[in-house]
Amino acid sequence: MAPTWVRNVGAGILLARLAMLTPLNAVHAESPIDFEGEYVIDTAGVLSATQIDDIQADLDALFERTGQSLHVAVVRTFESPADGPGWANKTALESNLNDDSILFAIAVDGRNYAYSVAEDFPLSTRSIDEIISRDVVPELRNSDWGGAVEAFANSTAEELERGFPFVPVAI
To answer: pTM of the entire structure?
Structure first.
């Protein structure tokens, strides 16, 4: 997977960087991870078992509807690199995600998000940014991490389906 770019959001990059300098956050900082075949990783411990099951169902539906897979990481903060874009790209590479995959990561303490997609992923970064600003950011503002992931999965599936032409099949 050759990641293109990702974007951060939060109270502000300066505030996020200052928050990462505190000793408490340094304890919870996350280096890029390897999904090792998993689709949802919550090292921050903010998702309930029910939320994880619901998210997994949404990820399965996304794949069934579009053939694209979504991997989700919920961590305390991004580290090594500390910026969300670098972290997401490094995680995607270390996890050997393929060109049909998208990685969506949330750093709950830093109040940041990032995503990573292959250069030839069927959705443009502009479309992904629109999905995030319209459907995901409101959930993030409410600290509804599970709701943010579900909104991202469902809206991504809808947007991908719009891009695929419908061809009726005669029986």
So the answer is: 0.79
